Amino acid sequence: MKLVWVMLAIVGSGLMITAVGRLVRSVRPQPEMGGLPTTPLERLGWIGLAITGLVGLGLAALVLLVGVNDLQDGPMSRGISILMLAGLSAWLIAWTVTKRRSGGPVLDERDRAILARSLSVESMIVLLSLVAWTVVLTEVYWDEGVAPVGYFQLIFWSTFVGGAFGRSLGIVMGYRREISVDA
Question: Is 15 helix (H, G, I), strand (E, B) or coil?
Fold first, then answer.
């Protein structure tokens, strides 16, 4: 059984390296787009990537400092809630400032197409994170038959952050690729 998991880890690592390589290639700036101003939606995509990246790192730091078993206790539970509220507040402030600067939420057909396609990136990141959590927790806690409650809070928040990260990443990728808009 251990050989199966080792093979799955090798194949999964190869797929992950390939996916990250393609992602880096698709997000790099295109020479023909140099000098063009960014749209408000693209700016929000970049801001969303920065905010969700920082919140994700903060969540990982909390888990590494305290451990998963202590996450359901009062102080750490409040710390995670404060971290998530700070990230949401930062994004809402950025959205309000961007909206105010651009004169309101103006979305053309290309923006709508990019938003629609960004859902596929978001859903894949959420799906892959849930699959990873399921496999890891099943294997680690198979003998005990039950996982600590702190993991369920961690699954919830990591799925939430992963979804927001995926949506922002999908928006940024959409502006870096050529998208045909059906009329």
Answer: helix
Instruction: Please tell me the pTM assigned to this model.
Output: 0.72
The tokens for 165 are 């990260």
Q: Which residue has the tokens 């004169």?
A: 103
> How far is 124 from 35, CA to CA, in rounded Å?
32
Task: Say how far apart CA 70 and CA 127 lie, in whole Å.
Answer: 26
Instruction: Please report, in tens digits, the pLDDT of each residue of the chain (183 residues total).
Output: 556 666 666 777 677 667 666 665 655 555 555 556 677 788 888 888 888 888 888 888 887 877 777 766 667 777 777 888 888 888 888 877 776 665 655 677 888 888 888 888 888 888 888 888 888 888 888 888 888 877 888 888 888 888 888 888 888 888 877 554 554
Distances (CA, A) of 98 to 25, 111, 119: 27, 15, 22
